[in-house]
């Protein structure tokens, strides 16, 4: 009897240790590494800073000057490069010059060959969107954060996962409405939204800003697909306490066709409380960490097919984005896509820089203006 109790306690202790070790891991980091194990470029992202071509020399000179100043910080991710090997990805942080950042490398770099544009090439294995903005923030004009990404106290153990179990179980069998009709051709686009109308409706309807912008995107997708009655929206949530380079999770919410206000109300009603939201992400992350690589990739592909539209709301600065006083519009696209639609909404107080990537062909007017 004593041996049975001892063995049980040992197993319980091992399970608790394993849980504590893995609960703050990032499944997205593992996915990015497995997906790009043989080719770094497979996870590359393209960010375009577009401005008046007449100001090309002025803007680029200031940008390079600020890059050189930032390179004085030995801890900056601008110094970092990656080495791919059979053992995984090894990141090195060796001092580099601004000239090295103007040529292709396995780390962030800039292409300045086109007038009126600075093309930033960055890789999701190295950082997520928040990490990119934090890395390059000082290269733009001073712009106080719209929402500071400060460290917060990690959630308590066990309880969030328990609270989230009903939602996780219900979500497991959900399938997207659009994934079966996608093409192999990636389509991208962008638009620039004045947020005055959005802020007005936010006040009138009492809907959180990020849910209202997500509803606007969903309404546009319903318009593009008139026969679709429901959409599974994947909303990214930033978790600052995650131990990874991609510190976000995805909350899936199913919405029905309706007006922007109808969809916004559905999101407001269905979005889980913060503790359940984290529990949902943590439960999935822990389960994914426990499976071998081959099964992990199959599960991630299954999971991706649950989502029709992935939406990232990234609040950046309180002011309009600029370089040396020259207004800049910022757009970002993925080079590969494993779900039907991805929208990145980079917001300031007065505008949103909207980028989309899609596996559906789009007409020229698709999301070229605020669809509200």
Based on CA inertia axes, which overall geometry fits? globular
Number of helices: 10
Based on CA atoms alone, the radius of gyration comes out at 22 Å
Between the first and last Cα atoms, what is the distance in angstroms? 69 Å
> Which structural class should the secondary elements be placed in?
alpha+beta
Placed side by side, the strands forming the largest sheet appear as 6-14-13-9-7-8
Which spans of ≥5 residues are poorly predicted at pLDDT below 50? 8-13
| Counted beta strands | 14
**Helix fraction?**
25-40%
- Summed over residues and divided by their number, the pLDDT gives a mean of 85
Please give the largest β-sheet.
6 strands, mixed
Q: H/E element string?
A: HHEHEEEEHHEHHEEHHHEEEEEE
Portion of residues in beta strands equals: 15-25%
Task: Provide an overview of this structure.
It is a single chain. The protein starts with a helix and ends in a 14-residue tail after the last strand. The protein is an alpha+beta fold. It contains ten helices and 14 strands. The longest helix is centred in the N-terminal third of the chain and has 21 residues, at 2-22. β2 and β3 form a beta hairpin. α5 (159-172) packs across α9 (274-289) and α7 crosses α8. The chain has a six-stranded mixed sheet. It has a four-stranded antiparallel sheet with strand order 4-5-1-12, with no helix packed on it. A two-stranded antiparallel sheet has the order 2-3.
């Amino acid at each position: 009897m004593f041996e049975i109790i001892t063995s049980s306690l040992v197993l319980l202790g091992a399970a608790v240790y394993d849980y504590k070790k893995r609960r703050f891991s990032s499944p997205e980091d593992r996915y990015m590494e497995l997906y790009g194990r043989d080719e770094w470029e497979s996870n590359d992202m393209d960010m375009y800073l577009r401005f008046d071509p007449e100001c090309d020399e002025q803007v680029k000179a200031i940008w390079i000057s600020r890059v050189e100043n930032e390179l004085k910080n030995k801890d900056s991710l601008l110094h970092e490069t990656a080495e791919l090997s059979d053992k995984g990805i090894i990141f090195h942080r060796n001092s580099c010059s601004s000239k090295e950042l103007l040529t292709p490398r396995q780390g962030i770099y800039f292409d300045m060959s086109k007038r009126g544009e600075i093309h930033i090439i960055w890789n999701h294995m190295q950082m997520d969107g928040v990490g990119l903005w934090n890395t390059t923030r000082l290269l733009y004009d001073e712009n106080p954060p719209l929402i500071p990404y400060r460290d917060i106290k990690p959630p308590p153990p066990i309880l969030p996962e328990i609270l989230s179990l009903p939602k996780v179980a219900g979500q497991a069998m959900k399938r997207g409405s659009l994934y079966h009709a996608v093409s192999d051709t990636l389509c991208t686009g962008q638009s620039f939204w004045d947020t005055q109308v959005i802020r007005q409706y936010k006040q009138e309807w009492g809907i959180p800003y990020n849910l209202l912008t997500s509803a606007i995107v969903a309404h546009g997708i319903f318009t593009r697909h008139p026969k679709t009655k429901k959409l599974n929206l994947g909303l990214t949530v930033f978790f600052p306490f995650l131990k990874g380079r991609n510190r976000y999770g995805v909350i899936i919410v199913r919405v029905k066709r309706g007006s922007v206000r109808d969809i916004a109300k559905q999101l407001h009603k269905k979005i889980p409380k913060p503790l359940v939201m984290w529990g949902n992400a943590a439960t999935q992350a822990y389960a994914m960490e426990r499976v071998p690589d081959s099964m992990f990739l199959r599960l991630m592909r299954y999971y991706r097919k649950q989502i029709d539209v992935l939406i990232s709301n990234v609040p950046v600065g309180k002011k309009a984005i600029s370089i040396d006083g020259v207004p800049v519009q910022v757009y970002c696209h993925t080079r590969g896509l494993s779900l039907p639609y991805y929208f990145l909404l980079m917001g300031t107080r007065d505008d949103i820089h909207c980028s989309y990537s899609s596996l559906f062909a789009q007409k020229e007017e698709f999301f070229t203006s605020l669809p509200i």
